[in-house]
Amino acid sequence: MLSRRLLRIKVLKALFAHLKAEADNLIASEKSLMASVDKAYDLYFQLLTLPAELVRYAAERQEIAKQKKLPTFEDLHPNTKFIDNNVIRIISNTDAINDYVAAHKLGWAQYPDLIRTLYQQLIENDYYRTYMARDDRSFEEERAMVDHIFTMLADCPALDDVLEESSIMWADDLPFVLMMIQRTLSNMRISHKELRVAAKFKSEEDPAFVKTLFEKALVNYNDYQRYIEKYTANWDIERVVFMDNLILGTAMAEMVSFPSIPVKVTMDEWIEISKYYSTPGSSNFINGVLDKIATSLTEEGAIKKSGRGLI
Question: Which domains does the chain possess?
């Protein structure tokens, strides 16, 4: 399922776009927000089909090699261990994946150069070469090979370029979706005939979390900014950038609006997000200001927490 951190990032980006564009249609911006969440789930299925594309390409290369005028022994008797990978076969035969990909018109047919590049990177990889040289064909080894493919994708400029070209909404989604895929693979068992795909959300509360956080942060934006000013008055104005204020305001909205989420969880999440989406050093600034704001809001009774795990 999509992580809460990714959902928070989606909200932050939607707020940034809405405010910078000086938009006045909250409903339209909220629809765009939920569409970006849906696209992240699309990416999950899109990437799950990649190993099968690599297998298809590998099989094509082996068939071409057999058709040479003077084929070598290796051409006529290729190592089919990768092509016969049972984990990839299970993924390829999973109806939930195939139906979703077809319904949402996903796939890699228009990116043959990417598949060729990824395959070349794969076969030049030491892990792959060791895998192909071993006689062992255990389920665990096959799953580890597929997991390694997705690990490689975490640092692949060619894939980054294709994703950026395919959808602007996929920007920054890759690390989160790869983690989601690797969790899915870890739950595979040799007895499974199909891959058990992850649900879009961990619980029914997640869609409401996204919408409520966006709405509360936006509707109360000016009030929150005035509140934040009390704790940033002594800071150099050049230091307090727009994104810092937006993160602080969104964190305030979360602390006030969600009784079941501990203040510490909210603070930790937004401090981490600030490390990637604001200026260097912003995390320390946000940490200090947010701690004072949380203390003040608690004393005023604006933050009321209830539920398990709340201290």
Answer: 4-13+36-186 (no CATH), 220-300 (1.10.940.10)
